[in-house]
Design a protein that fits this description.
Blueprint: H1 24-33, E1 41-42, H2 44-51, H3 55-68, E2 71-73, E3 79-81, H4 83-89, H5 96-113, E4 116-123, E5 126-133, E6 148-150, H6 155-162, H7 166-174, H8 188-201, E7 204-207, E8 214-222, E9 228-237, H9 243-260, H10 271-275
Antiparallel strand pairs: 1-3, 2-3, 4-5, 4-9, 5-6, 7-8, 8-9
């Protein structure tokens, strides 16, 4: 199995060079924020260190969060996120509600392609996976629901960045960008050209951005007033010569999901037209 690096967020302990004044709510949120895809279970001291809180404060807050159901305690003494947060997440229109609407179409795509399938939404400068279906036959990746990645690093992230407002694009491209593989594109000029191409063609192809063994194809999902509300992608091995077929299937899947979400149904174009203008050999 190919090992892919974890999302940039939560991989390292959170440290504070100087004391930060935080409200009671801020401290409780810092405790929850200590958890992440690479830190699904934590000890009390790990929570304290990652949240930048004293051990007594962490102990008190963790106790309150356990009582409410936001955290649960394993018999080993480690803590993990509780089901009460899942109940709240189900109310989020960009979370489980979106996932529920999209799932039948994503499942069909997964079964037809035998590829890794992702559904992502933008949260600030990151893309968050609200669905992730892994493949046993294609590129072996370790993505999961809830994973966060910088927008520049993934196909879904680049699609969402392409349709974001110019101010956010400028903020992302001015900031330091993490390189996950030798092929990760971090040059703002190249990324700007890629974003322009995505807006023109409605698709992006990313090669070896995170894993040297994977290629991602991603397209936007639209909602009411044709706003881009999410992005879907398939991730396959670099030796698979099926990109034109994947683009056509992704476009059909995105159109179906978009219609369910309230977008105006778009006329279906032949596969050859969907692929027109999309470079299958560029670094994108």
């Amino acid at each position: 199995m190919t090992t892919t690096p974890g999302p940039v967020r939560h991989d390292e302990p959170i440290r504070h060079d100087e004391p930060i004044r935080r409200t009671a709510v801020g401290r409780a949120l810092a405790v929850l924020d200590a958890f992440g895809p690479g830190n699904r279970t934590l000890t009390l001291s790990e929570i304290s260190r990652r949240a930048g809180l004293t051990l007594p404060t962490t102990h008190r807050l963790v106790g309150e969060l356990v009582s409410w159901g936001a955290l649960e305690r394993h018999p080993s003494g480690r803590y993990f996120v509780g089901l009460r947060l899942l109940e709240l997440a189900a109310l989020a229109p960009r979370g489980l509600e979106l996932r529920e609407a999209a799932y039948p179409y994503l499942d069909d795509l997964h079964q037809a392609t035998h590829a890794n399938v992702h559904l992502g939404v933008r949260d600030g400068h990151e893309v968050v996976y609200v669905e992730a279906m892994r493949s046993r036959a294609s590129a072996q990746i370790s993505s999961r629901v809830g994973d966060r990645w910088p927008l520049h690093a993934t196909g879904t992230g680049l699609v969402l960045l392409a349709y974001a407002d110019k101010e956010l694009q400028d903020d992302v491209l001015r900031a330091p960008m993490v390189r996950y593989s030798p092929k990760t594109i971090v040059d703002p000029r190249v990324l700007r050209r890629m974003l322009a191409e995505v807006r023109q063609t409605g698709v992006v192809i990313t090669r070896q951005q995170i894993s040297m063994e994977a290629v991602a194809v991603a397209v936007p999902v639209r909602g009411p007033r044709e706003n881009v509300v999410a992005a879907i992608s398939v991730v396959v091995g670099t030796d698979e010569q099926v990109l034109r077929r994947l683009i056509a299937m992704l476009a059909d899947t995105a159109a179906s999901i978009s219609t369910v979400l309230g977008a105006t149904p778009a006329p279906r174009r032949p596969a050859s037209q969907r692929c027109r203008g999309v470079s299958l050999t560029s670094p994108a």
